[in-house]
Amino acid sequence: MKRKISLALAGAAMLSLGFVMPAGAQNTETAIFAGGCFWCVESDFDHLAGVLDTTSGYIGGEAENPTYYDHEGFREAVRVTYDPSKVSYDTLLDVFWHSVDPTDDGGQFCDRGYAYTTAIYATSPAQLKEAKASEAAVKQDLGTVATEVTTAPRFWEAEGYHQDYYKKSPVKYKFYRTGCRRNARVEEVWGDKAFMGIKDHMG
């Protein structure tokens, strides 16, 4: 069961017993990132302190109820739920940029096509402003940026078997990630900045 469900059930149980939640205990925010394969984006953000939950899904298309086998016009993306008192949106942006290849406009690594292109989907005007500023900084570093930065439309959760795939099928996941050369390409693009903020936890 995802941690967000467990936390919600625990909170409901405490309230039903008359407990008062401390101020700020449920202060969470969400951020949405498209960085190629959503299994990998989930894994990367789960290694960051302050992230409470990651959910794979689809975003950006026009159809209702997209699925893995029918999500034309959508990107694979991950919704990140985090505690802003423990990790800032700016830090999330740093982790995102330095775990993808922002110069690639045709997909990410071995995954090609629109569904695997990169994007930052802001969930508030403040996020959009920060994301635009970070885009400008990355452009200075790399010379070009193919990542779209825009306001988030509706996010659709992916099928259950995609959630936490790296935990459910660790051998298959590692084989995929290595074979796709995700880590190798990120290191080629970013050098010492690759996987900023989570490098010590990368397998």
Automatic annotation (TrEMBL):
One CC-aspect GO term: cytoplasm
SUPFAM superfamilies associated with the record: Peptide methionine sulfoxide reductase
Alphabetized GO MF terms: peptide-methionine (S)-S-oxide reductase activity
Record bears the keyword Signal: yes
UniProt-annotated catalytic positions: C37
EC number, as in UniProt: 1.8.4.11
Catalytic activity from the UniProt record: [thioredoxin]-disulfide + L-methionine + H2O = L-methionine (S)-S-oxide + [thioredoxin]-dithiol; L-methionyl-[protein] + [thioredoxin]-disulfide + H2O = L-methionyl-(S)-S-oxide-[protein] + [thioredoxin]-dithiol
Peptide methionine sulphoxide reductase MsrA domain ranges (all copies): 30-174
Signal peptide: 1-25
Keywords assigned by UniProt, alphabetized: Oxidoreductase, Signal
Protein function: Has an important function as a repair enzyme for proteins that have been inactivated by oxidation. Catalyzes the reversible oxidation-reduction of methionine sulfoxide in proteins to methionine.
Protein family: Belongs to the MsrA Met sulfoxide reductase family.
Protein name per its UniProtKB record: Peptide methionine sulfoxide reductase MsrA
Native source organism of the sequence: Jiella pacifica
Gene it is expressed from: msrA
